Amino acid sequence: MSIFAVEYVYNPDHDHLRAEHRPAHRQWLEGLVGDGRVLASGPFADGTGALLLFASATEADLNQLVSEDPFAQAGAISAVKTTAWNPVIGTFRDLV
């Protein structure tokens, strides 16, 4: 299992979409926490996006999973950047 950092970029013109779909988005994420697939998630303090840490076998599997996010399905995310991450110090290092 690999860890991936996923950055969501938000378009300020879509604030209403995120507000509308936030409960479903958070419910989706909480389910993935229970499955061990989401390690951490939260918005940036300036409101421009969010950082999510996922555990996934492959980047292709991760991309499929991210496409199922209610935010993605509603068009509330303007860009997604996915990067494999290798934590060497801290809480997540024992997961890889």
Characterization of the model:
The protein is an alpha+beta fold and 96 residues long. It is 35% helix and 30% strand. It has three helices and four strands. A hairpin with a 5-residue loop joins strand 2 and strand 3. The longest helix has 20 residues, at 15-34. The model has no long low-confidence stretch (mean pLDDT 95).
Helix content: 25-40%
Radius of gyration, taken over Cα atoms and rounded to an integer in Å? 13 Å
What count of helical segments does DSSP give? 3
Task: Output the structural class.
Answer: alpha+beta
Distance between the termini: 6 Å
Rough shape?
Answer: globular
* Count of DSSP strands: 4
Spatial strand sequence of the major β-sheet:
2-3-1-4
**How is the biggest beta sheet arranged?**
4 strands, antiparallel
The overall pLDDT average reads 95
Q: In sequence order, what are the helices and strands, one letter per element?
A: EHEEHHE
Strand composition percent: 25-35%
Q: Uncertain runs with pLDDT below 50, 5 residues or more? A: none
